[in-house]
Amino acid sequence: MTEHEHEPEDRLEDPPLVPQEVERLRQQQLEMSLLRALYEKGPALPIELAVRTFSFPDEITEPLHSLEEDGYITRQRMRKGEIYILTKSGYARAVEGSRKEAP
After folding, report:
1. Could you tell me the mean pLDDT of each successive run of 10 residues in the chain, 103 residues long?
2. Pair 84, 74: CB distance under 8 Å
3. Residue 76's domain spans which residues?
4. Would you tell me how many other CB atoms lie within 10 Å of the CB of residue 39?
5. Closest C-alpha to 86, from 47, 43, 33
6. Is 4 a domain residue?
């Protein structure tokens, strides 16, 4: 076989992801990043969470609402904004997620 010929692939390739699946996976990753950020550094303003997760503030708005609806975080209103805090179930999910990512 010459160097320009290619061997046939013996393995099946994963089918390509559709845009909705890609967005759903990205959303899940961002949610886990937000939970880890709260777990590692404690309660935070939305802008702080954006910085901690290397995101833009508008990118984390929907994931924060989703996490709040699911009971993983709670939002406390302050005079000049709001702060997000992990709930017990959010703490457990963040710990579980950290264990799965550990080498």
Report:
1. 55 72 86 95 96 95 96 93 95 84 58
2. yes
3. 20-97
4. 17
5. 43
6. no
